[in-house]
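Sequence in, structure out. Go.
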Amino acid sequence: MTARSQAAPDAVFAALTHAATWPSWSPIDSADVEDGDPGGRQQVGDTRIFRTGRNVARERIVELITDRRFVYDNAGGPFRTYLGTVDLAPAPGGGTDITWSATFDPKMPLSGGFWRWYLTRFMQRMADGLAAYPTNPG
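Output:
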């Protein structure tokens, strides 16, 4: 999924690496960090806990490239494996192009089509919210 932010890549990257911002710009209701401060900057290896309604997701940061890439995996849930990637690139004329993608292997056989449909919609909402956040945090 793609979106364009008017903010510079460093501002977009800052929102990604501070779990406390996620409820402000995404469909996520609350965010916490295992053994850490959700308001602080997260690092590779940190596990974040996101709650949306009754659903709880545990996501571990596996790669960070400052102002360019944010990669996480999902620890548990309906997937055997899940790797999400957010790539940031300076946009022509200013701002940031955001590309949010994921690869996954669902636990339940034959559910891949449903998850592809669901995640496409969810990740687009995430990318759109992230794109709007740094320029309009209120």
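Check: The CA atoms of residues 80 and 107 lie 5 Å apart. The mean pLDDT is 93.
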